Amino acid sequence: MGFRAFLNSMPLWLAFLGTAALIVVCWGIGFRLGNRTAASGEPTESLEGEVVAAALGMLAFVLAITFGMAEARYDARRQVLFDEVVALRTAYLRAGLVKEPDRSAVRRLLREYTDARIDVATTLDIAAASARAEALHDSLWAHAVTIAGANPTDIGGMVVEGVNDVVTIHVQRAALARAVRIPEAIWLALYVLTALGMVMLGHHFGVKGDRPSFGVAGLAISFALVILLIDALDRPQQGFFTLSQRPMAELRAWMDATRAP
Questions:
Q1: What separation, in Å, do the N-terminal and C-terminal C-alpha atoms of the chain show?
Q2: Of the candidate ranges 7-16, 55-64, 101-110, the one whose mean pLDDT is the lowest
Q3: How many CB atoms lie within 10 A of CB 76?
Q4: Which of 4, 67, 81, 104 is most buried as measured by Cβ atoms within 10 A of its Cβ?
Q5: Cα–Cα distances in Å, from 211 out to 31, 197, 216, 220?
Q6: From CA 206, how far away is CA 200, in angstroms rounded?
C-alpha cells in the first residue's frame, strides 16, 4: 500500500488528528534534542534561527503549490459539470428536430442519463454509474446513427454532434476522476518537510530554553488544517468539497417541462 492509498484509507478527521499528532511529536523530539544540546554546553549555530525560518518557508512554499494543484482539480471538476449540463441541454434540444419515434427515444435516454449523473453524486458508486453511463451511450449512439441515416442533412449531423459531445465530456470527467490527483511523491515530500521543519523548530526552542506553550498546539492545528484542506480537495468522493448537483437537477426539471416537441 502506497502512502497516498494509506491516507485515503483513513477518514479525513483521523488524517487531521494524525497530522496534528505528528507535528506535536516531531516538535517534542526536536525540543528534547535542543535541551540536551543546551545542557551539554556545546556551542550552537548562531544562524540556527535563520535556518529554521528557511525550512519553514520551504514548507510553506510546498504547501502553497500542493494547495494550488488540489484547487485546480476542483475547478476542473466544476467546469466539466457545467460543460456537461450545456451538452445535455443542447443534445436534448437538437433531438426535437427529428421525427418520432427517434425524438422521444433519444430524449428518454438523455433523461435517464441525467438521472444517472444525479444519482452518482449521492450513491458514490462510481463503477456502477460508469457502467450505466456507457450502456446509455451505446443506446444514444445507435439512435444517432439511425437518425443520421434517415436525415442526410444538417439536422442529422447536429443530432450526432450533440450526442458525441455528451459522450466526450463523460470520457473527460472519468479521466479527471481517475488520473488527476496530487502525486504520491509530493505527499511524501510534504509530510517529510513538515516533520523535519517541526523537529528543527523544536530544537531551536529547546536550545533557547523556551518552554512549550499554547502556540505549539496552535501551530500544529494550523499546519494540520491546511493539509486537511488539501486532502479534502484531493478526495472528490470523500471530502467535504463536494460539487453541488443543482445545475444537473435544474436541467432534469427543465427536461420534464419540455417533453413536448
A1: 54
A2: 7-16
A3: 14
A4: 81
A5: 9, 18, 10, 16
A6: 10
Alpha carbon dihedral 208, 214, 215, 217, in 10-degree steps, equals 110
| Residue that has been written with the C-alpha cell 510553506 in this structure | 60
- Total-model pTM: 0.76
Q: Check: CB of residue 37 under 8 Å from CB of residue 207.
A: yes
| Other CB atoms within 10 Å distance of the CB of residue 183 | 11
Please state the domain extents for the chain: 27-36+47-257
Question: Rounded CA gap, 81 and 42, in Å?
Answer: 61
Burial class (CB in 10 A: 0-12, 13-18, 19+), 69: middle
- Cα-Cα-Cα-Cα torsion 145, 151, 157, 163, nearest 10 degrees, comes to -40
Rounded to 10°, the helix 102-123/48-95 angle is 150
The alpha carbon of residue 80 and the mean position of all alpha carbons in its chain are separated, in whole angstroms, by: 13
Closest CA to 224 of 29, 30, 59, 90: 59
Report the Cα 112 to chain-centroid distance in Å: 26
- Higher-confidence position of 86 and 100: 86
As a whole number of angstroms, the distance between CA 178 and CA 176 comes to 6
CA gyration radius for the chain?
A: 27
Cell of 141: 449512439
**Distance (Å, whole) CA 118 – CA 124:** 10
